[in-house]
Amino acid sequence: IFEGPKGDIPAELRKADIFAFPSAYESFGLALAEAMSMGMPVLAYKSCRGAASLVQNEVSGILLEDGTEALARGLERLIKDQALRIWLGRAAHEKVKKYAPENVWNMWEQLICTLVKD
User: Fold this and answer.
1) φ, ψ (nearest 5 deg) of residue 64
2) Measured between alpha carbons, how far is 73 from 5 in angstroms, rounded to an integer?
3) Which residue has the higher pLDDT, 101 or 63?
């Protein structure tokens, strides 16, 4: 079901227990990072560079081989193991803190100040 655009992404993410990110190509998975920031356990393909750069396999999510069967097995594993979902979700939340707006803006500010000084 495609319900169209949603305005309150955090509220939508709070309704879910697992975030599946079956993208083949992403430079930086913003939706993935948003889900991780909400403490959601994530599934993604290890061949997707953007996902693999955010998710540490079996620590902050699960990186899968490509294909629907691997995705189905990953979903089944997380559905059956609530403790794993919670553990991965907490680690995911911690992993993406470095991308919090205040951290990113501070890095941009430092870069700009460095460039202006030169």
Assistant:
1) -110, 160
2) 29
3) 63
- Measuring CA to CA, which residue among 22, 96, 14, 34 is closest to residue 59? 96
Cβ neighbours of residue 9 closer than 8 Å, sequence gap 6 or more: 34
The CA distance from 96 to 32, in Å, is 10
What the block records as the tokens of 18 is: 């697992």
Looking only at the bridges linking them, the beta strands covering 19-21 and 62-64 are unpaired
Distance, first Cα to last Cα, the chain: 53
Long-range Cβ pairs for the range 43-47 (8 Å, 24+): 43/18, 43/19, 43/71, 43/74, 43/75, 43/78, 44/20, 45/21, 45/70
Q: How confident is the model at residue 92 (pLDDT cuts 50, 70, 90)?
A: very high
Bridge partners for 20 per DSSP: 43
Cβ contacts of 70 within 8 Å, gap of 6 or more: 45, 64
Per-residue pLDDT tens over the stretch 24-67: 998 888 899 999 999 999 999 999 999 999 999 999 999 999 99
